[in-house]
Design brief:
By secondary structure, this protein is α+β, with helices and mostly antiparallel strands. The protein is 40% helix and 21% strand.
Amino acid sequence: MTLSLQGTLGIDFGTSNSAMAWADAQGMARLIPLEGEAVAMPTAVFYNSETLHTHFGRDAVTQYLEGTEGRLMRSLKSLLGSPLLQETTVINHQQVSFLDIIATFLAALRGRATQTLGAAPLRVVMGRPVHFVDDDPERDALAQASLLQAAHAVGFEEVSFQLEPIAAALDYERRLTTESTVLVVDLGGGTSDFTVVRLGPERVAQAARMNSDRMQDVLATTGVHIGGTDFDQKLSLEQVMPLLGYRHLGPDQREVPSRMFFDLSTWHLINWLYTQRALSQAKALRTNYSDEQLHRRLMNVLTHRHGHHIAHEVEQAKIRCSQLDGDATVDLSYVEPGLSAPMGAADMREHLATLLARTVACARECVQRASLGNGSLDAIYLTGGSSALRPFQQALQTEFAGVPLVEGDLFGGVASGLAYSHG
């Protein structure tokens, strides 16, 4: 049976993962399967040089990690608001703009929604962080305009935007039976967003009667450009990159130049290190090393294009360490037999302390802007994959003592809320 398309598609286009939900004319939202039964998938595109096919999500990451020749693109959202967005890159011997790559991913999402719904959705509400770009309203506006352009390019006719933490709040609200004042925490791959909002069944009913956008219920919003990819980068720099020469002292007792290690630990910059120019620069660093083995490892990583494999392993070790609240390791045996890097709970707390402090300070600022104290908050609602990070939750509990943490649908809550925004 073909469903009526009198409804709204919500797209949570995330830095690390994306999700979609559909709200029918009655306003009930349901998540759309994206890969098998999975309702969230990595925001990843792989251009296969062997078959010239384009792969998405887990399939894209698997193709790359299994050694298929091609180009993997991740952290696409990080490019919004960046000068890089209008630049082109060579993919299968053709120049392709980064904005076109984002449009390619959105087209894949729309195609999967069409397959589930039976017809192509025309109306979409897209999520956006409180700030695409910190402290730069002009670039922030450009980021949203670019995403709008990409959405129109793939066939969406009516496109609107909703702040991601507000969308998360609208999803959480469906589970409440009494009015509550909630701090919504949306910690994604690229940004951390916070909203203090009044929620409850009576407010849902009132909004439906008055066709309200609910902004009168929002007491404050704040956001900072820190997310899971920043945590991954920091952990990679501190735990893995020293094995390749980061902070290594050369014969003149000076550190090996560090720029390459920062790029190698940043998803969307890794591919630039595989150019002939970058490889030549890396080779020329040999004289900066006292330990030849460290330089050999670096050249092995670059010449065999192991950068994304390392980034993936760091992310997985972070997740294991957080889930177990214990020690994990980063497997680097593909770089050198028997090579690995530790990833312990104490390492995570130490290396992420500054980033987590800035993130929690942004949450505190949101509550202060709402003119509330801890006693006025009924709950802290967590969404976004990075909000599951144990050191982050511990930092929140310390800052907001006595306020219960409620863990929502970490990967689907924002998408559902976006669909509710115009449900």
